[in-house]
Write a structure and sequence with these properties.
With 772 residues, this protein is an alpha/beta fold. Strand 22 (616-617) and strand 23 form a beta hairpin. This is Pyruvate ferredoxin oxidoreductase alpha subunit.
Length: 772
């Protein structure tokens, strides 16, 4: 966190309350973490997704410095993080989380369970566009999915409000009249990353005093003298009663929030009424907006009022329960209002907010106020003052015309121009260039063992790259050199599916693509399932003779590319695809972290390595647990072929690529893991990538081997070559591991070395025996 700023509060117009406050210059994500640390939650289950990732990062950095006692649990995906939070909540303590967009949708199934069983917690929903297509910037398409899950929703339009709402949220969640999990919603990048001057309560004890002690009257799973059944199966009459009680608790949240807001105002000088109203006391035209866009419109109100136009802007501080009565009262004299929705309810002739504003007016007998709906700001599209002025003008025009000419439309979209239609810039690869005839894979008729023949690598240099140059990868990134080396072993056409990750992001920035063959994207967790569906469609259409009838090629190899932690959140579907044994290849580029979101720990991050969520400080020395061996996990599914590879050993990798293609086309699923360098997040010299991955192999951290029909073969043994090196010889190349070379971390390195040695000896035993 920033240092406290010394400033004249009276001149700056800052608030005064009962407690001493510090002035900071921070972003929304930073102060969400700061508030959580002051409350000192028991548990945070989380999974990184932009733009909410920073909340966990900041908390981890504070944890390393000993600034809070929160147990941070990195989940295998957002569904898992929601499960961790729910499980922790059943234990009676305080629980915290942060997420965005598709991550929120992935955990969605779990969230009504939490509210339906009345387990309090706080979730920061850092609003972001829901894909597809993939977009990481801010709109409210994720927030609108939250409207029906039974969680009260507090709205935060700037970083100050993010801090304040986070403190009030846990008090609201734990109130006996509410006892529900609560969402704090704020705009991704507009609020999450932009720094603002704000005030925070200086003494954390004052925060905890305001929040109060953890409630003891709620039943929980850790009281052995009072066992409880949580989430019982309910028949029809019981369920409706349960829902009625939950509904009553939701409506109670409104009056409880009002009470808490007044208490908070006494404490800090900042009060949050149910509705944030600006210029609404005599407004004749108004605009309804959520969160950060509201602040843009307030300046326009001043401008219009200077011209004699009675304009106002209105925005709820609490979205669930929806402040229907208060809104109807605020609009009773308004002649026309433009509702800006940063998300569409497709097919409903308006977004969710416009539907709810209309419902509020109708419920309270107002048929006079004209409502104009505009969908705006999708995908993080900026909203400027002149555009807010156009929103007001729509309302003014409706008043003057006595009717709404266009009740519903999008705002800020651009008409298509046929001259700007995307054009092919990369010609498709020629079949004859992809089948060199220099690589052959022949099974032995008696043993079934594959005999693989590959030429000298220089003979394959004329084989075209499957991904063009011109992508946006960082200098020294090992993804594409590693993948292209692997692809050299594959003959003919391929169809690739890429998980979200660096390899996907840097090659497909619309309207351009670096891919020379068909490419598909799907989310982390579902890539293997998606490609297996495509594979089976291919084989079924091939069986029916449809490709030949249409004169199309029916000669494809299907490859899923994963990395950046994709084999954490995507492990379940990958195992499912393996057990079904679809004819496809899954190849993982292992960069030891979630690099495309800023280097958070993944389960493939080794012990002790520093990431943005496994920080280094007096109270923490990097990642606290060992790395995940995905190759061995996938080998245990009994698929026909598993391999590991490295661009530092290109002939080995090309040969394995050829084998992978044969097995994928003739037998079933193949899994491969390639260690690749990430200089940016490994904090290493960008010219040393191949040197570093070579050292990883020679230290036996990343052994090269294959598992063919259940039989393990080490394909490169550094001990036989007299090239084995100490683990520290590999660690010395990377800035993310420099702390491990210090004397105080000697025991941690010894533990790391012991595990590497155990896995290496186990692999050698498997190499010696076909039955292991």
């Amino acid at each position: 966190m920033s240092k406290e700023i010394i400033i004249d509060k009276e001149k700056a117009g800052l608030s005064e309350g009962k407690v001493e406050q510090s002035i900071l210059f921070e972003s929304g994500n930073e102060v969400a973490a700061y508030a959580a640390a002051q409350i000192n939650y028991h548990i945070m289950g989380y999974y990184p997704i932009s733009p909410s990732t920073e909340v966990a990062q900041f908390l981890d950095g504070m944890k390393a410095r000993g600034q809070h006692d929160i147990k941070l649990i990195a989940a295998d995906g957002e569904h898992g993080s929601a499960g961790i939070c729910y499980g922790a909540a059943t234990g009676g303590g305080r629980v915290f989380n942060a997420t965005s967009a598709n991550g929120f949708l992935y955990m969605l199934e779990q969230l009504p369970v939490q509210s339906g069983t009345r387990m309090p917690m706080v979730l920061n929903l850092v609003n972001r566009s829901v894909s597809g297509p993939l977009n990481i910037h801010g709109d409210h398409s994720d927030l609108y999915f939250a409207l029906n899950i039974g969680w009260p929703i507090l709205m935060a339009r700037d970083p100050q409000v993010v801090y304040d709402m986070n403190i009030m949220a846990i008090k609201l969640a734990e109130d006996p009249e509410v006892r529900l999990p609560v969402i704090v919603s704020y705009d991704g990048y507009f609020t999450s990353h932009q720094k603002r001057r704000l005030q925070v309560i200086k003494d954390s004890n004052e925060v905890r005093k305001f929040v109060g002690e953890v409630p003891t009257e709620f039943p929980h799973a850790l009281d052995r003298d009072n066992p409880v059944t949580i989430g019982a199966y309910m028949n029809e009459p019981d369920t409706i009663n349960n829902r009625y009680q939950q509904s009553q608790a939701m409506y109670n949240a409104e009056k409880v929030f009002e009470r808490i807001s007044k208490e908070f105002a006494e404490l800090t000088g900042r009060e949050y009424p149910i509705l944030d109203q600006y210029g609404m006391e005599d407004a004749e035209v108004a605009v309804f907006l959520l969160n950060s866009a509201t602040e843009v419109a307030k300046g326009v109100v001043d401008k219009l009022r200077a011209k004699g136009i009675k304009a106002g802007v209105i925005s709820p501080n609490i979205l669930r329960p929806f402040p229907q009565k208060q809104l109807a009262e605020a609009l009773k004299n308004v002649k026309a209002i433009t509702v800006g929705d940063r998300g569409d309810s497709y097919g409903a002739h308006g977004g969710n907010m416009s539907m709810e504003v209309k419902a509020a007016l109708h419920t309270y007998g107002n048929s006079e106020t004209k409502v104009i709906t505009r969908i705006f700001g999708l995908g993080g599209k900026d909203f400027y003052a002149d555009e807010a002025e156009q929103f007001f003008q729509l309302a003014i025009d409706a008043v003057e015309a006595g009717k709404v000419e266009v009740p519903f439309d999008y705002f800020g979209h651009t008409p298509g121009n046929p001259e700007l239609a995307p054009k092919r810039r990369i010609e498709p690869l020629k079949k004859e260039d992809l089948r060199t005839g220099l690589i052959s894979v022949t099974p032995n008729e008696e043993t079934g063992e594959l005999k693989v023949k590959i030429p000298p690598l220089r003979a394959l240099t004329k084989k075209p790259k499957r991904i063009s140059s011109g992508h946006g990868a960082c200098p020294g990134c090992g993804i594409f050199s590693g993948l292209e080396t692997f692809f050299k072993g594959i003959e003919g056409d391929i169809v690739t599916l890429f998980h979200t990750g660096c390899a996907m992001i840097v090659t497909t920035g619309y309207p351009y693509s670096s891919h020379k063959a068909t490419y598909i994207h799907n989310l982390f967790q579902n890539g293997a399932a998606t490609l297996s569906g495509l594979v089976e469609m291919f084989h079924e259409r091939q069986r029916r003779g449809e490709f030949k009838a249409l004169g199309l090629s029916d000669d494809f190899t299907f490859v899923m590319v994963t990395g950046d932690g994709g084999m954490d959140i995507g492990m379940g579907p990958a195992i499912g695809a393996a057990l079904r044994n679809h004819k496809m290849i899954i190849v993982e580029y292992d960069n030891e972290g979630y690099m495309n979101t800023g280097s958070q720990l993944s389960y493939s991050t080794p012990l002790g390595h520093m990431t943005s969520t496994s920080g280094v400080g007096p109270y923490q020395a990097g990642k606290a647990f060992h790395h995940k061996d995905t190759a061995q996990i996938m080998a245990s599914t009994n698929i026909p072929y598993v391999f590991t590879g490295s661009e530092a050993y290109p002939q080995d990798l090309v040969k394995k690529g050829a084998k992978a293609q044969w097995y994928a086309n003739n037998v079933g699923l193949v899994y491969g893991k390639i260690l690749i360098a990430c200089p940016l997040n490994w904090k290493s010299n960008e010219t040393l990538g191949q040197t570093i991955v070579d050292a990883a192999v020679n230290s036996c951290f990343f052994p090269l081997y294959e598992v063919e029909k259940g039989v393990t073969t080490i394909t490169y043994n550094p001990e036989d070559k007299n090239k084995r090196i100490e683990l520290t010889e590999w660690l010395k190349y990377m800035g993310k591991t420099k702390h491990l070379l210090k004397e105080e971390n000697k025991a941690l390195v010894a533990e790391f070395e012991k595990e590497v040695e155990r896995r290496w000896n186990q692999l050698k035993a498997k190499h010696e025996s076909p039955y292991l």
